[in-house]
What we know:
This protein is of the alpha/beta class. The protein has one domain (about 5-125): Rossmann fold, CATH 3.40.50.620. About 30% of the residues lie in helices and about 20% in strands. The chain contains 5 helices and 5 strands; from the N terminus they run βαβααβαββα. It has helices at about 15-25, 40-45, 50-60, 75-85, 120-125; strands spanning about 5-10, 30-35, 65-70, 90, 105-110. Strands 3-2-1-4-5 form a 5-stranded parallel β-sheet. The structure holds [cytidine-5'-phosphate] glycerylphosphoric acid ester. [cytidine-5'-phosphate] glycerylphosphoric acid ester binds next to strand 1, helix 1 and strand 4.
Amino acid sequence: MKRVITYGTYDLLHYGHIELLRRAREMGDYLIVALSSDEFNRIKDKKSYYNFEQRKVMLEAIRYVDLVIAEEGWGQKEKDVERFEVDTFVMGHDWEGEFDFLKDKCDVVYLKRTEGISTTQIKKELYGEDAN
Length: 132
Ligand code: C2G
């Protein structure tokens, strides 16, 4: 059983997220998503439209996702990789190189982001330029 993990806020779920999750799942047999808590979002200076529970319900409804856990901080990835016996860590390429420290524990793969869509762009188009 090849286990894959990825991390994110996944707010205002869109096809860029789905494409990432689909490709991540295809790299193994079981996909874990560590979903940023509302408190961690504040640390990332991200304000999500949906709260953690709402974002969790949406992710759990996606066929590619097998388990959703909470991401409470930057420092939990090594423990998660060990605890869930993860084979592959996946993130979009906007994080290229940032998580290479995990390479002694698992494969680290950065997948190309889907062009032309982002939660920030959606907010800007809905709420105007100063949205973040
Ligand atoms: N993504 C993508 N294409 C897009 C938008 C997002 O492939 N058009 C990917 C991102 O690269 C990321 C995932 O979807 O791998 C989730 O995106 P965010 O919710 O923005 O994640 P982020 O806030 O970058 O969280 O500890 C890591 C952080 O929690 C990453």
